Amino acid sequence: MKKKSIPSILAMKADGRRITVLTSYDYPLTRIMDGCGVDIILVGDSVGVVVAGHATTLPVTMEEMIYHTRSVVRAAPLALVVADLPFLSYQVSQEEARRNAGRLVKEGGAEAVKLEGGINCAATIRAITLMDIPVMGHIGLTPQSIHRMGGYKVQGRGDEQARRLLADARAVEEAGAFALVLEGIPTPLAGEITAAAGIPTIGIGAGPCCDGQVLVIHDILGLCEKYSPKFVKKYVDLRPIITDAVNRYLDEVRSGEFPTEEHSFR
Ligand code: KIV
Predict the structure, then answer these.
(1) Residue 101 Cα, ligand 1 centroid: separation in angstroms?
(2) Are 76 and 33 part of one and the same domain?
(3) Which structural domain range is residue 175 located in?
């Protein structure tokens, strides 16, 4: 299998091949998904929610993103690794945005960065791409804007909102992004944006018309304890399996059944 790159991802849209994307934050799960041949691994700031247990992605820091990106990069010789710019790492000034994007590449080893926003972030996307750092855009339900949206709600319903998202998509592409995440938007609008875009769209809760799909790895493995959104498909329910393994270990240690000779030294 060949290493995935920005040109090979762009070629997938041109050839009509669907792009597979999963989030990852650590070495062991990344080894598995890289071995399976996933095209892009996103070190998402969702790490703050699914790994660190925060209620939102807002507390995630640059240091945390760099740490997780390094772990993922060491485990992914084949996939393209994209890392999220966390809240407050790119909104204050273009200088900070450029420095933080550079840190994810230089210190984390990412091959591209992702940031949330449309027209309001176009100049920032342009500034980062001018440093030859590829940028993935992200519009629609953008979790860093939770307080403005008043919750995790579908975006782009109604003509005015739809027009705004189409304009956002155009602005992100014109600013030089190589791909665009469409999150939590109605299927027909995602289809319209995808048809108009020259860059691949990656959907999450945006229906089947996108050029690719992304999901959070903890969601597809059934590792999230709390509510899971309608767009998530749980491919396996690991919580009861892990619970059973932990309970058996606890029972065997308490009863003296573990360790046996087999797990001991002479
Ligand atoms: O942070 C994240 O994991 C994301 C994806 C869900 C698109 O932004």
Answers:
(1) 17
(2) yes
(3) 6-235
